[in-house]
Amino acid sequence: MSNLKSFLPKSSMHLLIASVLAVILSLVSTVAFLKIYANGKQVYHDIIAGNIVWSDQFKSLDYSIVYCFILCFCLFLIPLIYFVNKKSIAKIPMNPSGLFLSKNALICFFLLFYAVSFYFFSGNSSFIYVAILLFITYFVIVCKKTDTMYKEQIFISFIVSLTFSYFAIITLHFVYSFFNPNPSYKLAQILPEVLTLLIWMLQLAIYFYAEHLLSSLTKILMYSSQLILPFITLVLVFGVYQTGSKIELHRSNYTLAIMASIASILFIYTLLLILKHRRIEVSNVWDYICWPSLIPLTIIMLYSTPVYGGFVSDDFHLGEIFMPLQQMLNYGMKLNVDVMSIQGIMGPMYSLVNDYIFNGNLSSINYTFVAFPIIIGTMVVLLIKKLYGSKWAFLFIIFSLPILFESGMNRTYLIIPYVLILFHKNTLSNPVKWVIFYFWMSLIHCLYNPSMGAALTLAFLPLFGLMLYRSIKLKLWSKVFFEHRLLFCSLVVIQLCILAMLFPTLWGTVQFILDNGSANTLAYGISLFSDAQASPDWFPKPFPYDKLNRLLWESIRIGGWVSTLLLFVGVTIFNVKKVISFNREKQTYLMILYCTISIVFLILITGYSLGRLDSGSMHRSGSITFICFAFLIPALYVFFLKNKFNSVAYHIYLIVFAVLLGSVATFGQQQVFRITEKLMQPMLVPDNAIFVNGAKQGIPDVGEGFIAKERWKEMLDFESVLAKMLKEGETYADLTNRTLFYEITNKRVPTFYSADYLAANEEIQEKMIKNLDKEEPPLVFIGPAIRHDGGPASIRAYRLYKWFLERDYVYYQYNSLQFLVSRQRMLETKAYEDTTNAGENELRTIFHQKDLKSLPVAWGRNFKEMRDRFQSSPDNMSLSGSNEIVKEADGSIVTNGNDPYVSFKLDHTVKGKDADFLLIDLNIIGTQEPFQGQLFWNSSNRKGEKYDEDHSFLFNVVGGQLLIPLGSDPDWLRNTHNELRFDIGDKANVKVRINSIQLVRLVK
Length: 1004
What we know:
- The chain is α+β, with helices and mostly antiparallel strands.
- Among the domains are: 2-98, no CATH class; 708-847, no CATH class; 855-1002, Sandwich (Jelly Rolls).
- The protein contains 40 helices and 20 strands.
- The strands form five sheets. Strands 10, 12, 13, 15, 18 and 20 form a six-stranded antiparallel β-sheet that branches.
- A hairpin with a 2-residue loop joins strand 8 and strand 9 (817-822).
- The longest helix is centred in the middle third of the chain and has 37 residues, at 485-521.
- The two termini are 60 Å apart.
C-alpha cells in the first residue's frame, strides 16, 4: 500500500506541478510523433470521394495526434507524480487576490471561456446592464452588513428579484410590440434597462431607509414578474415581416390559439400557486420561484429571430430532417428499415413539432427550428427543477442553457438529461431503477443520435455492470417481483413488446453505423493540418503571427475538450488517493466514477469531434468543448461540491459570469442583438421573395409563406414535370441531393437512402441499387444539384450513377430542371423527339468533373487495397504516337516542349461500361515541381476533332499508381473507344517512366 501511495500526489500542488510537466512532455512527444508520422498517407478500401480525398490529406493524423497526446499525458503523469512527491514544495505567499485566483484558477478559466463562447454563439449583451448593477449591489451590501449568512440572503434577493423583474419588463415590452409592431421605435430598445435601473434604485432606497420592507418588495417583484412572464410564449407566433419599410403580419390562427392557451394555463397555474403560498413565510428567495415561470425564462433565453421563410436553408439538410416522418405516415415505411433517417429520430421530432404546433407544412419550418430547442430545453429545465430544485434550474437557464441548447448543438441535447438522471442520488441508491433507466435512455439516445448515444452508452457500461451486479447480489429483482408481481410482469411484457417493435429500427441503425463507419469520416471535412485551416475572420487576433492566432483558436475549439479530459484524469487520481487514505466517503467514489465516465466518453467521441473539422467554424469539436465547459465541469459542483462552497464567494462567481459575458459582447467587434431586439425584431424579407399560397397552386405541403421567386418557380416546374411524367402511385429517383422535393411533392423515396451524397461506399450504394432493381423509376431528377465535398454523383456515388446510365433513360429538360426519363415513358408522353443526341452534352455538363485534383492519386495509391473490386481488361494498349517527347535508353521519356503527350491505341474497340477506370503506373525521375496531367479519349460517336478539352480529365501527377474514373464522364460510359492520349504537364524536361497503363472495370 505504501508503494502505491508514492505514486499518488501528496497535495493538490504536487498534482498541479506534475500535470504541467506531463503536458509539456506530452506536447514535445506529440510534436516528435508528428514529424515522424506526418508523411503518412490515408488508406482507403473503396472509391470514396470527399474533400479529404480530393486534396489527398492525411485525415488519420488528426486522430493519431489527439490520441498520442492523451496517451503520453497518462504515461508521463504517474512517474512525474512519483518524482515530484520527493520534493518538498513550500506554500507560495500570496496576497488575498492572488490567493483567490490560485485557488480558483479553474473556475476563472471556465468563466472566461464561458463569456467568449456565449458571445460567439448568441452575441448577447443585455446582461451587462444587470451585471453592473449586481456588482455594485454586492459591495453595497458587503459594506453595510457583517453577518455573512444575512449578507448572502440579501444579495441573492437582489440578484433573483432584479433578474425576474428585468425579464418581466421585456415581456411587457414584447406584448406591446405584439399588438403594435414598430421596429423603428428606438426608445423601446433601452426601455427595459432604464426601468430595471429604477427598480434597482428603489431596492437600494428601501434597503437603506426601510429595510424591514425589503422582503415585501422582493415578494411583490417576484410574484408580479412571474404573472407577467407567461405571455412571452406569444413570441413563437409573432409573425412580423418587414419588406423595405413595409410591415406585414402573417400569423397562424391555429398556432396563435395554442400559444395563447399555453400562456393562459401558465398564468392561471402560477396565480393559483401564488395564492396558495402568499401567506407562507419563506426562508430565501428561491422559494418564491414557481415552476411555471421557468418555461418563459427558457423561451426568452433560447429564442432567436427566425429567418423570413422555411426554404432559406438548403434542400438537402431540410429534406433529411423533415422527409422521414412523411415517409412513415404517408407510405407506412419503417424508420431505418424502409427509409433511412441519418438524423436519427431527431428529424421526426422536428416534424412532429412542425405538424402539431405550427402549420404542418414547410412554410413554418423557420419557427419550428426556433421552437424545437426551446421545447427540449424546457423539459431539461423542469427535470433539473424536479431533481435539484429551483436554484439550480434558474442558474442553468441563465448561464448554461444559451450555449447547450443553441440550435447548432441539437445533436447533443440528450446528454444533459442522461447524465443528470443517472447520477442523481435517488437513482444511484436504487440499482434496479438505475439499470432500467440506463437501458431505455441509452436506447432512446442511440436512436436520437447514433454517435453521441453510442459513446455515452459505452462510457456508462462499467457503471451499468456494477449496478447490475449489485442488484443481483442483493436480490433486488426478486424483491421487486414479490412485492409488485402484477406491475412487474406487466412492465416486462410491455417492454418486451416495445423492444420487438423497435428491433428492426435498432438493427437498421446498427447497420447504418457499420456501413457509414470510418470510411466517410476519413473522406470529408478538412484535416487539422490543412493549409485551409485558419482562425476565422471574426475571431480575435491578438498576435502578429498567424500560427499563434491559429493556436489560440484551436486551444478553444479542440483544446477545450482535451483539457477537460486531462483535468478529469487529475481529479480521478487525486480522489483515488483519498480512497486509499481510508476515506470511505461515498461522494469520493462517485466522483471517481463520474470522472472516469466523462474520460471514456470524451475519448470515444473523438471521431465525432474531429470528423467534421471545417475551416473557420467551431462545428463539432467546438460543440464538445461547449458541453465540457457549460455542463461536464459545472456538473462536478452540482453533484459533489455544492455543500463545500463558500456561498458568498460562489455568488461573486455569478457576478463575474455576467460582467464578463456582457462586457465581451458590448465591446466586441461584431454587431449584436440584445434580448429586447431578438424578441421584437421583424423577419427581414429580401426583395426577391414573394408571398405564396401553396394549396391554391397545387403544392399544399408548401403552405403559406415567403419564398424566393426562383425557388417558387422551380417548385411549380417540378410539380408540372411530375404530373406529366408519373402515373398514380409512381415516384421518382433523385441524384441531386435535394431531398426536400420528396416532402414538397409528397412522393415516396424508392432508394432507402434519399440522397446520393449519403451513398458514400459500396455497401450503401448496393442497398440503393437493390431497391431500384425491384422498382425502376420512370423519372430521375439530376439537376440542378446540390454538391457538397463529394463532387458530382458520378464520382461520389459512382455505382448508383452507372446503374441509371446503363439503362434506357434519355435526357429531358424543363426550364431549369434536368431529368432522365425512361424511353418508354417519353414515347407515352410524347414530350419531345430525338432526345438522346440533344442531351449528350447536357449530361456531360451535369456529371463530368474535369479537374479530379488529387483523387486519382489517393485512389491509385490504395489500388492494392481495392484490387478485389476491379477486373483487368483483356485488351492491351500500345504506344501509337507522341509529341515533344524524347525517349531515353532506360525506357523513360523526357518532355521537350509545352505540349508533350503520348498516345495509346487499344487492340480492339472497347465499350466504356466494360472498362470504366484507367490505371496508370509511372515513376517521376529526379526532383520535379508538382504538375498536372491530362487525359483525352476518342469516342466512336465523336464528330469533328479527334480530341477536345470537353472530353478530358485533369489530375495531379505523382510517382506511383493513378486510378482515373473514366466512367464518370457519360460520354465514356455510353460509347465505345479505341484510343487514349496522356498529356504530361506543360513544361519541358519532365522525366517520367510509364511502367504500365491498363483499363480496368469496377465489378464490386
